[in-house]
Protein: Pyrroloquinoline-quinone synthase
Organism: Rhodovulum euryhalinum
Amino acid sequence: MTQTRDEFEARLRRIGDERYHDKHPFHHLLHGGRCTPDQVRAWVINRYYYQSRIPMKDAAFMSRVEDPKLRRAWRSRIEDHDGTAENEGGIARWLKLAEAVGLDPDYVASEAGILPATRFAVDAYVRFVRDKTLLEAVASSLTELFAPKIHAERIEGLLANYDFANDVSMSYFRKRLSEAPKDVAFGLAWVLDHADTAEKQDAAANALIFKTNVLWAQLDALYSAYVEPARIPPGAWVPGTGLALAKAS
């Protein structure tokens, strides 16, 4: 049975309440100041891979969109991460965070040392957006509904607990506090407008569940490899490598 617009929106929001990665044990460690410097670095390195692929998945999405209005609305997402002449972009801001935690930004940008599970999860997300229906692709982006809360908690927790946290290193998260609500307002309205049958509503809800799984899987990989260091897989980042020269001495 097709749900009303309000019922379906409530269903989507429940998915975040139950499945968003703010509930993962790794985030509780990170935001509570209980991560070691190397665990923070591992998070920064692996999260970079996700950040770097966001504009790629958005470009893949736009390549299939025939409606110029939708392309115009979506284009800002690429600019928010890749940057423009006036805006350095989220990827550059993430590399400032990498430098702040003692990593060589060039090493992080090289994508060397990424956990295998991070690659699998993030690449699966890019393929999902590239290959699924436009409705499912847009619905998968609706984890942004829940992002401002986790960004605010992260800013507060990192500033309170880590010496590296300052206005420069937190600039990525502060910027997303204004960017994400704009994106999600459009995406949510688009999904609610186009999920007009029970079948489409199920597909959109499952797409959002898939995306929460992508985010959760990345933290599972981090927790397994670096909270219990003996389980770092071959080829993944090893603490003590990839550091900025000034920090490595």
User: Anything to note?
Assistant: The radius of gyration is 18 Å.
